[in-house]
Amino acid sequence: MNHKRVARIWRREGLKVPAKHKKRGRLWLNDGSCIRLRPLHRNHVWAYDFVEDRTRDGRKIRMLTVIDEFTRECLAIQVKRRLGSQDVLTVLARLFLARGVPEHIRSDNGGEFTAKALRKWLGVMKAKTLYIEPGSPWENGYNESFNGKLCDECLNTELFYTLREAQIIIENWRREFNAVRPHSSLGYRPPAPETFQPADPACAVWKLQPDRPSAEGRLPVT
Questions:
Q1: Is the pLDDT of residue 217 over 80?
Q2: How far apart are CA 142 and CA 83, in angstroms?
Q3: Secondary structure E strands in the chain
Q4: What distance in Å separates the CA atoms of residue 118 and residue 90, rounded to the nearest whole number?
Q5: Separation CA 129–CA 110 (nearest Å)
Q6: Model confidence at 13, in pLDDT bands (50, 70, 90)?
Q7: What number of other Cβ atoms are within 10 A of residue 153's Cβ?
Q8: Which of 23, 86, 16, 76 is nearest to 47 (CA)?
Q9: What gap in Å lies between CA 177 and CA 71, rounded to an integer?
Q10: Would you say residue 116 has pLDDT above 60?
Q11: Which of 21, 24, 72, 146 is most buried per CB count within 10 Å?
Q12: CA 149, CA 28: separation in Å to the nearest integer?
């Protein structure tokens, strides 16, 4: 078996050699560090991106995922048949009112994220945009990792019959992801747990109890 015979078999089976692509490198400073802003605290850097799936009838559904890179919390998953720049602006406005304005928002260069109206509104709100290099999804690694978990744990295991069903199931998964699911990067704790363990449980329980009446007016405990 020589390389000529391999080439003949390769051509006979209709196989093609993968085209060579020019490698894309990251942007580097003179000191060798990569230009990428790391999240330092809550509301420092948010990231958003789109994910697509289909209902049982073959119609497409689109999801806008928004996460806080520092806490790993999923702030919102907007599920609709179509999503444009106006939908992105509406979701961000609702989150800004509820959680405050982040310092930076990271995204790719999609038309929904680079629309003039959205960029102008973000400028008014004093939220700086961080656009990754084209063809470099690793520069939005936190959001890409979250989207992978969304696909593996929800979208690939569920069959959606209607858009409303998809919205309910995905929202339930988002709440479980934030409040219940352990995260290895957070010491196997959820990013936004619904309960927490106080330092002194006995004192905490006593403080949570209402003021007790006197012995004479105390009601029997049932």
A1: no
A2: 22
A3: 45-54, 60-68, 74-80, 104-107, 128-131
A4: 10
A5: 13
A6: confident
A7: 14
A8: 76
A9: 12
A10: yes
A11: 146
A12: 29
Residue from 141, 124, 120 nearest 38 by CA? 141
- Kindly state the helix (H) or strand (E) to which residue 62 belongs, with its residue range: strand 60-68
Cα distance between residue 180 and residue 73, in whole Å: 11
Describe the strand order of the beta sheet including 128-131 as a list of residue ranges: 74-80, 60-68, 45-54, 104-107, 128-131
Tell me the pLDDT tens digit for each residue of 128-185.
Answer: 988 887 777 777 888 898 999 999 999 998 999 999 999 999 999 999 999 888 877 7
Which residue is associated with the tokens 């310092």? 103
* Assigned token pair, 220: 């029997």
| Mean pLDDT value across residues 52-77 | 93
Token pair recorded at residue 26: 């990251």
Nearest-10 crossing angle of helices 141-150, 163-179: 120
- Looking at every residue in the chain, the average pLDDT score rounds to 80
